[in-house]
Amino acid sequence: MLNLILKDLLVQKKSLLFALGYCFFLVFAFQSMEGTAPVAATIAVVYLLIQYSFAYDDKNKSEIMLNSLPISRKDIVLAKYLSVLLYIGLATVAYMFATLVIKMINIPLKVQFLSLQTISISFFIVSLMASFYLPVVLKYGYLKSKMFNIVMFLLFFFIPMGIISLNQKPGFSLSVNMSLKDAISWSNWQITLLVIGFSLLMMCVSCFISINIYNNREF
Amino acid sequence: MRIIISNSSNEPIYMQIVNQLKELILKDELKAGYALPSIRNLARELQVSVITTKRAYEELEREGFIETVQGKGSFVAAHNKEMLREKKLSIAEEKLGEAVLFAKSLGLSLDELIELLQLLYEEEE
Amino acid sequence: MENILEVINLRKNFNKFALKDISFTLPKGYIMGFIGPNGAGKSTTIKLIMNLLKKDGGQIKVFGKDHIQHEKEIKQHIGFVYDESHFYDELTLDETKKFIAPFYKSWDDHVFHKYIKIFQLPLDKKIKELSKGMKMKFSLALALSHDAKLLIMDEPTSGLDPIVRSELLDILYEIIQDEEKSVFFSTHITSDLEKVADYITFIHEGEIVLSMAKDDILDNYCIVKGGIDLLDTYNQKAFVGIRKTQYNFQGLIDCREKVQNLFKGNVIIEKPSLEDIMLYIVRGKQYA
To answer: Which CATH class is domain B13-76?
Structure first.
């Protein structure tokens, strides 16, 4: 299974570099929208890597080959879900790297650093996106789910961005944040863990559905 | 060991192999105990299917020309000298028969034929 | 005789095409050619065997075991070569090998490198840089490096030149020197199989027309040629397929013995090729 995950990285090693470059770009582009850059970067990079991994499978019709090897279909699906987690990690590292570099060479930019809050927000959004997208792409393949894919990207990229930036507006942000914190009087850590836990649960349910779908897939 | 397969011949390929191997054995070119190639090896060499060579060997075995030892392969059978001679004699008979038939069609008499045969026989010596 | 592959009443329905309860068996140690025109159901059958398609009925047994219940175990011992490579264009041969090899328990790197050498394949090149023939050879090298007991090939020679095709035949002879190995080989180019195949299974419009030893087929069928005046309504029925012109006819008859009774030696009898048999059966059915 590890092999399947590594293979997905290997076929898109060019996109990995691209992803890093993209992080630099986003740090720059989103600097005026408070709190959005780290989230946008994570979502965009993960989205990109998921897309590419399926696009390469589709372009080479490699699923015919994969499913002719002694690999169970369950493992192929699991590998895709685990890859998503790995991509989140990679995106986070790439963003951290980008911000550090910018900071170190003293480029006069308003750099937004990662915070517990942004990490949990992006984790949640990416998980939600993957949980919807993977069952669809595993059922219909990359090309046929292209339309769904575009709609999904718009939904999961721009709406959260809008909310976050709205959230950052003084009055609104404070009221929402404060009321949440007051209501459950938990620490940031606890909220982060809750969000991540919930996201993982969502992925598990989605994964379970995907395995069933993929088991009946024909090539 | 020389075997030539013709694809245009009307004779089935396995029979071509059988007949040519028989001839080699009768002419003593393949001596008793000679290890024949495996059916798979022969199939590759002759570019025919394994079933074809397998059939040929089975036929030769049935007629007592070769013996197959499980796990060791096939060998030219150690035949009875008498039987071999008989088989060779029958070939000589058959060929002479053809010659007689041909001679008759030309209108040669028995005496003329004998004379011709004598000449040829002595020439060979 | 032990059977490596058994297909029993296999059925698959599509919108415009169906595989209609097909059956055949491949004994251990032999090569079976799977022939038929394009669209006859060859690839469908192979995809069903590999569980890439889901069957609607029937049974498939590989090495005597159900192909779905024991799928992973069976695939450990199947080598596959398809008409396209389906490997990742972006990876090099070496990277592809490193990805594939760990899935097989009995992967043997020595064997792999032996074939890489024989086939003269450049390990550091990307798959997309290979010619079609080289891709096929690379697939074959991978298929032969994990001690496969059954080699499944779907149109491996389509689009290849005669030289590469003849090289493939030599390799097939090499493979079956080992009595444990069997080959299932689909193609619409029947001349590839004329020599090497032990059994022929002929599929047409989703049905098996015949499945038997190649020698039996070639010995039984014959091409009959003669003047058109020799034909009458009775003897015409004996033909599997026939082509008539103003002056003469030629056709395929499925039993040599019949010819003598029907035509009393006034005709020319020739050995058919597999292609002749395929053509006359396909066309014969069209005009029937």
So the answer is: mainly alpha
Architecture label for domain C3-217: 3-Layer(aba) Sandwich (3.40)
The domain ranges of chain C are 3-217, 221-287
Q: Do C100 and A64 touch (CB under 8 A)?
A: no
Put simply, the answer to whether B12 touches C179 (Cβ < 8 Å) is no
- Chain C CB contacts of A11 under 8 Å are 88, 90-91
Q: Which 8-state DSSP code applies to residue C242?
A: E
Nearest to B49 among C174, C214, C271 (CB): C214
A-contacting chains (≥3 CB pairs under 8 Å): C
| Contact status of C1 with chain B (Cβ, < 8 Å) | no
Q: Which residues pair with C31 in a beta bridge?
A: C183
Per-residue pLDDT of C7-18, as tens digits, reads 999 999 998 899
ipTM of the complex: 0.85
What's the structural domain count of chain A?
1
B42-93, pLDDT tens digit by residue? 998 888 999 999 999 999 988 888 888 888 888 888 876 677 778 778 888 8
Give the Å distances, CA to CA, from A111 to A34, A37, A100: 10, 9, 9
Q: Which fold has domain C221-287?
A: Alpha-Beta Plaits (3.30.70)
Cα diameter, chain A: 58
Q: What is the DSSP letter of A51?
A: H
